[in-house]
């Protein structure tokens, strides 16, 4: 069928009523958002953002309501989609923005593709990777992996991806989303090492829309976390850790096969390092559960 590029779509969408299909690759995937309220009568009040791209650049795609339970788990980072009967809208200005792996990629930030079950009923087709043709010019998924030795030199809020061998995982804890509200974030702390430093990655992992992964992070697992943000406490030079963002994806042993990051050079280097390690000696140094206060409180009350 006749296709339209994202770049052409952004330039001409106001003068169009009907849009040609678009062929895109998913580069980023946000957590699933529930926006239900007692006074609103929406059957499935869900929303999920994806960043999709073709040869012309990257644009946001929004999955709405009943399409979320049907498609959210099937659409992964790296998936190629053919989209038909969609709507183009001005983009939501306060949405979080992931950091693209390719810094040269053009971002179409003023518009977004809206997919819904009606008005019109969107048609989504997943193109198997073996059927994707080079002449389509779809960009590859690129990452920003860092090693633990590089982390000490990165600024606050820097976006990065990490891979490491889990040596500690804490119990699941809760934090209120807002004061005097009943909604909570669920999170846990983890340590992971990659052989480039004596210090581990300290990871604050919030439960994203991957409960089956979040609940099974265990010592000796190969852990990959994408779109993490550096948190650097400027008042304490030694306090630095990584926290999940809205677009973070977490993968553990058993989930890595077929993921685009397996081709990354730093991931390959990490795999080579793990082959030199003694599993028994590493197991002796692993820890599970317990109370983990971090960042650590000062030694005396006067410093508070």
UniProtKB/TrEMBL annotation:
Gene3D superfamilies: Nucleic acid-binding proteins (2.40.50.140). Coiled coil: none annotated. It comes from Psophia crepitans (common trumpeter). It holds the Pfam family RADX. The lineage of its organism: Eukaryota, Metazoa, Chordata, Craniata, Vertebrata. GO terms for molecular function: single-stranded DNA binding. This is RADX protein.
């Amino acid at each position: 069928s006749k296709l339209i590029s994202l770049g052409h779509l952004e330039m001409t969408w106001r003068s169009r009523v009907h849009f040609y299909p678009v062929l895109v690759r998913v580069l980023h995937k946000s957590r699933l958002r529930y926006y239900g309220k007692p006074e609103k009568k929406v059957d499935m009040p869900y929303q999920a953002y994806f960043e999709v791209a073709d040869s012309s650049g990257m644009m946001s795609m929004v999955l709405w309501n009943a399409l979320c339970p049907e498609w959210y788990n099937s659409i992964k980072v790296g998936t190629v989609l053919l989209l038909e009967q969609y709507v183009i809208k001005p983009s939501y200005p306060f949405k979080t923005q992931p950091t693209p792996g390719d810094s040269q990629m053009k971002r179409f930030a003023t518009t977004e593709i809206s997919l819904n079950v009606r008005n019109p009923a969107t048609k989504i087709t997943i193109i198997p990777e073996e059927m994707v043709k080079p002449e389509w010019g779809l960009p590859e998924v690129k990452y920003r992996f860092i090693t633990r030795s590089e982390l000490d030199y990165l600024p606050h809020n820097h976006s990065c991806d990490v891979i490491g061998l889990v040596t500690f995982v804490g119990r699941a804890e809760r934090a209120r989303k807002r004061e005097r509200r009943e909604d909570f974030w669920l999170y846990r702390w983890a340590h992971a090492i990659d052989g480039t430093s004596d210090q581990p990655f300290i990871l604050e992992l919030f439960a994203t829309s991957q409960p089956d992964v979040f609940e099974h992070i265990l010592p000796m697992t190969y852990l990959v976390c994408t779109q993490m943000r550096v948190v650097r406490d400027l008042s304490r030079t030694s306090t630095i850790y990584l926290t999940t963002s809205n677009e973070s994806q977490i993968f553990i042993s058993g989930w890595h096969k077929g993921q685009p990051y397996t081709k990354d050079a730093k991931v390959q280097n990490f795999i080579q390092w793990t082959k030199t390690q003694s599993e028994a000696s590493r197991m002796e140094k692993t820890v599970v559960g317990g109370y983990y206060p971090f960042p650590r409180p000062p030694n005396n009350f006067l410093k508070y």
